[in-house]
Automatic annotation (TrEMBL):
Belongs to the two pore domain potassium channel (TC 1.A.1.8) family. It comes from Chaetorhynchus papuensis. It is a multi-pass membrane protein. The chain crosses the membrane at residues 17-42, 105-123, 135-153, 286-306, 318-336, 342-363. Keywords: Ion channel, Ion transport, Membrane, Potassium, Transmembrane, Transmembrane helix, Transport. This is KCNKI protein. InterPro entries: 2pore_dom_K_chnl, K_chnl_dom. Residues 102-159, 294-364 form the Potassium channel domain. One of its GO terms (cellular component) is plasma membrane. Coiled coil: none annotated.
Amino acid sequence: MATASQPLRGKTACKKIFWAVFPHACFILSLVIYAFLGALMFSHIEGSRKVTFRGEYKTFLQNLTYLARKLSDNVTENEKMFKNDIHELFNTADPDWFINPEERWSFFGSLFFCCTVFTTVGYGNTYPVTRIGKYLCMLYALFGIPLMFLVLTDMGDILATVLSKSYNEFRKVQSKIQASKLCSGSTCSKRNELKSRAQSKIVINEPLTIMEVLRSQSGTKRRPVKYRNVELFEMLIARENENKQPARNKSMERWSSCPELAREKAVSRVIKNFDKIGKELEKLDVPIVLMVLVIFVYISCAAAILPNWERNMDFQEAFYFCFITLTTIGFGDTKLEHPKFFLFFSLYIIIGMEIVFIAFKLGQDRLIVLYKKVISFCAEKKMPSKKIYPK
């Protein structure tokens, strides 16, 4: 029986794990599919457009040629004037004149653009030019941003659980170390003796035997023999059933006999998991200094790796770029030469945005507590003191 029940227990455990992981995998898979569909759409629309040079482009080239000819051999005299003129000229230029759409809007380039849209980073280096591309970008962001926030909230529960458990375990270990330092030998021995005495007073009642049950039923002797024997017989049967038959899980019996009920139970459990999204994040209570330290270490790890393929970045520039990205500020002042390599950091960006979001949430809670204290303090100061008049 034990060997036959082991595969059944393994299958039920696998099913429980599957239904527990299913909501989280569903959200992440939906976001990945949404990003790939958007990349295919924008690469087809923006990458296949024809670049038409209008009169402004020809005027720009003529002015640039004129400035180049105007520059005399004595560069030092006209250098300052030439810099001002060339600066004003390039301010009137359209950046789209110097971009090859097929290279900029490749599949990986479009995928990078989609990630900057629904993560609300928006560097500004890549943007739609065609009218239909702008309309589709607004529609894409309208559905992509809520989906991204849903993924962030869901992963926030996981990170909040990990952080809270880790912090609680750390506090337990810290309290044990402090208790061991404060505890001397005599006091600890006294505490152990008290514990042993308390445990020795515990009495475990064993099941009554049949003779003990018969002796305890002294009130039944006054009744007629026929009724007395029936009552004793029923009590003995009930007692034997309690001792011999183990407690059975009726729900498991119903599930094994009717698989539809098992599926219905699993589906209802998954629906309850959807309803619990964001609950663990609300209950998280860790020091804000710990979250700042986690963010610093998290960004430092990426800043040490990013300069390996982005040669124009050092550690400080990469740290600045990662911070601007994870906080969704996205100035666009730092450009990536190989954005498709940075796509491998997609999971890093999502987790990092979640860590920053948790830090902002904790900071918000601390600010609310501070505002409450300030308002209550000001209210107590302004309240007039009660005067006691003599009777």
